[in-house]
Amino acid sequence: MITELLSSFSEGEAAALAGQAAVRLGDWYRDNARRLPWREKEPAESYPYRVWVSEIMLQQTRVEAVIPYYRRFLAAFPDIPSLAAAEDDKLRKLWEGLGYYSRARNLKKGAAYLMERGGRLPADIDGLRQVPGIGAYTAGAVGSIAFGLPEPAVDGNFLRVFSRLLAAEGDIARPAVKAAFRELLRAAYASLPEGLPAGDVNQAVMDLGAGVCLPKNPRCADCPIRKLCAAAQREQAPLFPVKGEKKPRRVEEKTVLVIVRAGEVLLRQRPEQGLLGGLWEFPNLDGKLPAPEAAAWLEGQGLTPEGLVPLPPAKHLFTHIEWRMTGFLTLCSGSVPPGWQAADRTALRERYPLPSAFKAYRKAAEKEINDEPV
Ligand code: SF4
């Protein structure tokens, strides 16, 4: 399997190089580790839980963006039992703006699963992989950092650093290539020197990938493994990792309706499953609709619009989808349609989790609605 990624080294040479790099990275980490709230080891009994929460939050999200969310989340849900009992809307509100909301849902599902099995995270990789929402990367991160297991945590940073170290030609989008890196590093971690935990090496790779081995302009002069790094020696670092062509995002047109009724804005909840599952939204329709069609739809919901004012277009990128939105602001009379909610500014801010996809329209709504219940 390891042959999937090698072109410059034999399997034995690659394993030796990865082992030497792991030791240097571990040494470098001792003096250069970033101080991050989830790296506080005390209280020890909740450390695995805190590492788990942080690793889920950090997926696809920058460290600086995560820190305030992490602190608020831990203040609300300091341990597995409190997360398992979390109220869904409170959980979503605490995640509002962080994106990839299924992560919050899966964390709660994972906590509920653990509560049925003693209320603790398992201290072995197979056990961790059974927890809902924990995949190979998170199991490696939690297992190595919180429990000292000799397991790599293979994410984008990891693949970039080790692809460059080995000038590896394998396409990192292919599962076989990821598996080959995991296998290679597992072998290297099995023979780390006494006193160097694999968790330190994994965290060193995270820090190196975030600040030194950058995707576009790696700072090789500051890198602790530059003398070992095949890509740097050949001055080819930006050519690695090798990545296949990404599929273009699917474009979806939407017409978003900011409906103000009696000083409050109307919201509806998205279906529990699927994109932005369970979050609240401004009612919206597929396609780019002209004002008369949008007005007719509102009337079909039992509302009477007093004209529709166009709002500027907006765009939001998800991993595989791009929303291109146009919108209308409308003042309406009539009853609140079943299942919808009317929110004043305080409720919009504090009660209803609204995804950042609607950021542009939220501003338009906030200008029109009252601060307090009317
Ligand atoms: Fe990345 Fe450069 Fe370090 Fe190689 S030497 S791992 S390319 S920063």
Q: Can you characterise this structure?
A:
It contains 15 helices and seven strands. The chain is an alpha+beta fold. The protein has two domains: 2-239, Hypothetical protein, domain 2 (Endonuclease III, domain 1), CATH 1.10.340.30; 250-368, Nucleoside Triphosphate Pyrophosphohydrolase (Alpha-Beta Complex). Strands 1, 2, 3, 4, 5, 6 and 7 form a seven-stranded mixed β-sheet that branches. β5 (303-317) and β6 (321-334) form a beta hairpin. α2 (47-58) packs across α3, α2 packs antiparallel against α8 and α8 crosses α11. The protein is elongated and about 75 Å long. The termini are far apart. Residues 161, 164-165, 212-213, 218, 220, 223, 225-226, 229, 231-232, 237 line the site of iron/sulfur cluster.
Give the SSE layout.
Elements: H1 11-32, H2 47-58, H3 63-76, H4 80-84, H5 88-95, H6 102-115, H7 125-130, H8 136-147, H9 156-166, H10 175-190, H11 198-211, H12 230-233, E1 250-261, E2 264-269, E3 280-281, E4 284-286, H13 291-300, E5 303-317, E6 321-334, E7 340-343, H14 345-350, H15 359-368
The structure holds iron/sulfur cluster.
Iron/sulfur cluster (SF4) is lined by residues 161, 164-165, 212-213, 218, 220, 223, 225-226, 229, 231-232, 237.
